[in-house]
Write a structure and sequence with these properties.
235 residues, alpha/beta, OB fold (Dihydrolipoamide Acetyltransferase, E2P), 2 domains, five-stranded parallel beta sheet, 7 helices, 15 strands, elongated
Length: 235
């Protein structure tokens, strides 16, 4: 299911966008959940990367779409942003926030469907996976793409992420089973590495997020092959 946000201060425009979205998924299959915000300020309040696709109106009273997009990009580089506007001349500024596309109001279904199809293909190719970490009565949800590496520490795991480190009681195998196998690989029996954050290989050392981790002789061949496949696909 795709998670979609609509951010617009005009109820008629919100209804029109919801209608074409529902029509698209009815005709093409698949499902979506739609969250509605009536201003950019409402979207960015306690924002976390939970949406696959955000439709942003540019002209809103409290916080316009461009400013909201700039806020999103501070913590979220993956969510697809599409500006929906009557002011096409301003949408070109979207390149500064890596906007995927823009749509001019009023919406025309077939043109919209083409743009949405491309947007969903982008989402699929950059699929984001959420990992649930439980420790006692505490539950944390983190984006898989934010994990730089996972370290085993006796019977605990330390998740080294872009924002913070999380320590939970679990096994390395259980962690590996929840992660995308094409993106993560063990460099030795104590570490699982997110291949995206590998910046350097020097002898038996891999540099991940600025930290140096040992590549074991036993794991080296598998690790280097996984790294080559990962960067080959990205290229």
């Amino acid at each position: 299911m795709y998670s979609i946000a609509i951010v617009d201060d005009d109820d008629n425009d919100i209804s029109a966008l919801k209608s074409v979205l529902e029509r698209y998924f009815k005709e093409n299959g698949g499902e979506c959940s739609i969250a509605v915000f009536h201003d950019g300020a409402d979207l960015i309040k306690d924002y976390c990367p939970r949406y696959d696709l955000v439709f942003l109106d540019i002209d809103m009273e409290r916080l316009n779409g461009m400013a909201a997009a700039q806020h999103i990009r501070k913590t979220d580089e993956f969510t697809a942003i599409i500006f929906v506007t009557r002011m096409a001349k301003y949408a070109i500024k979207g390149y500064s926030v890596s906007a995927l596309d823009f749509i001019v109001k009023p919406l025309e279904y077939f043109s919209f469907a083409l743009k949405l199809r491309r947007a969903l293909a982008y989402v699929d190719s950059n699929h984001r996976k959420t990992v649930c970490l439980k420790e006692g009565n505490s539950v944390s949800y983190i984006d898989e793409s934010d994990i730089m590496y996972i370290e085993t520490l006796k019977h605990y795991l330390v998740y080294h992420t872009k924002q913070r480190n999380l320590k939970i009681f679990a096994s390395l195998k259980s962690a590996l089973d929840t992660l995308s196998p094409e993106k993560f690989c063990m460099c030795n029996r104590c570490y699982i590495v997110n291949l995206r954050y590998v910046t350097e290989i020097k002898d038996n050392i891999v540099v991940v997020g600025g930290d140096e981790l040992i590549i074991s002789r036993y794991r080296r061949k598998e690790f280097m092959e996984a790294l080559a496949r990962f960067w080959g696909k990205r290229g």
